[in-house]
């Protein structure tokens, strides 16, 4: 091969997959580029643990590629000539490493970077081959076809087609277990005294230790705790975590999927999103492994179907929606929410036990499970009318699994209803009663969940009604909100006034009036 025929293959921090489309036709003489760059670490100030996890996983992946015979140029964040951006590192490689006939990349996960990449061909005067990311089960054009002619994009119908196409949990043409969805069995509160599974902890090796020091040094003021890092940073360890999840958590995953417990970060959740999202685990393999547990009689259908729905359904659906709707999707603010994000999203200093626990868990682990994200921090931001931009930035930076393709639809659409109902048919707004039903938070809280008004009342209670009042013109016509609006009509003026004055007092107390 002449130098001219060489390909430069850029692999991003969330593309740590040997079979990545950008690597599929790798030939001797090609060069794989991985680069730690300040721009990606700071376009939002990512959680320190997210940075440690990702940089360590990138360094381990470079080793994996080298062992597999690839020539790799790995740029460390503290390399003297590091230009600070991915574009800058491509440019430097083109200058320093001889001539290349083309640049090959896999479609990335965020619009801002994709937009930049579409200009690279002109910038570098080189053909740029942007390939589909075939780690997802639903190609983007397939998703677009599915949306064609549909008034509403309903995840459940998309999911059924995906089940058929992927052949997951199917008995011929029928869904395994006789039904598509077993969610009605998946709303149990955690019984007191239940033994929770002991979760894996991977000791940090030399590479991770080095990265921890680097992150503390360069990004010391970012949110969260850098160490200890309990997560896997290699494919082999991520696969171990998958096996442990299947053995000890999956059977109860469905039952307690919506439960919350103070001080318990992981419950029966898989804690696999960060591995799937950065490429250490393959989503299809994860789904197939879960199905095998059902087929072998080791896990019940409600657990396995619920788990597969999250990955084959929600994960694929939000990604399709993101690319279908961007860039306009991020601009809407249907409820005209404008208040600032309260400080306690950063400090955890609040008397609300549920919010405190969700934030402290997030600080410690760069993780919170779905119900904490949706029904605690998300629900609070929705009820309090916090600006979507500020909430989205928070979600994008605090979670180790967060990239905009998955974070944005979940935050903007599902949690905040800022898209006016593209993702969800109604806002996921809930008062303290829901939180009390699904958790043990309220018994240890300063506030009283049974009180509706006054200084000791649970803020979720009056904020819930205040939310319905503030957004009456936009939400009253929503048929799924008929019941709460009928109840609001029955509320006398005195109670309405109390809702308003309690909400205003609370907004003043937390500094966002
Ligand atoms: P499990 O509960 O074990 O679920 C299994 C898998 O299903 C997850 O690993 C994940 O890959 C997938 N999944 C479940 N729910 C969703 C969903 N709604 N959308 C996409 N995939 C899903 N998930 C992210 O991966 N990155 C994010 O940045 C992210 N931001 C979120 C923001 C908000 C406001 C909300 C409400 C949800 C968000 N989610 C996000 C979805 C979900 O909360 C996480 O995927 C899940 O908590 C990850 O933990 P787990 O691996 O233990 O999940
Ligand atoms: C999230 C992230 C971070 C923190 N750092 C890097 C990096 O230094 N180099 C890199 O290639 N990728 C990084 N990433 C992941 C990218 O931000 C991600 O590829 C884009 O957001 C698109 O999903
Ligand atoms: Fe949260 Fe209200 Fe319960 Fe306190 S009383 S834990 S604020 S729901």
| SS class | mainly alpha
Q: Give every kind of bound small molecule, once each.
A: flavin-adenine dinucleotide, ligand DLZ, iron/sulfur cluster
What proportion strand?
5-15%
Low-pLDDT windows of residues: none
- Euclidean distance between termini CA atoms: 67 Å
Secondary structure tally: strands: 7
> Percent range for helical residues?
40-55%
Main-sheet strand order equals: 3-2-1-4-5
SSE order, one letter for each helix or strand: EEHHEHEHHEHHEEHHHHHHHHHHHHHHHH
Total helix count? 23
Computed Rg: 24 Å
Oligomer class? single chain
Overall, the morphology is globular
Mean pLDDT figure: 97
Largest sheet: 5 strands, parallel
Please give a quick description of this structure.
The protein is mostly helical and 513 residues long.
What's the SSE blueprint?
Blueprint: E1 7-10, E2 31-35, H1 38-42, H2 48-67, E3 72-75, H3 86-96, E4 102-106, H4 111-117, H5 120-124, E5 128-131, H6 140-147, H7 155-166, E6 170-171, E7 174-175, H8 206-219, H9 235-248, H10 250-253, H11 273-278, H12 283-295, H13 301-325, H14 344-347, H15 353-365, H16 370-383, H17 388-398, H18 404-415, H19 432-438, H20 459-470, H21 472-475, H22 482-489, H23 493-509
Parallel strand pairs: 1-2, 1-4, 2-3, 4-5
Antiparallel strand pairs: 6-7
Helix pairs in contact: 2-8, 7-13, 12-13, 13-18, 15-16, 16-18, 17-18, 20-23
The structure holds flavin-adenine dinucleotide, ligand DLZ and iron/sulfur cluster (SF4).
Residues 269-273, 276-277, 307, 310-311, 314-315, 318, 369-370, 373-374, 378, 395, 399, 401-402, 406-407, 410-411, 414-415 line the site of flavin-adenine dinucleotide.
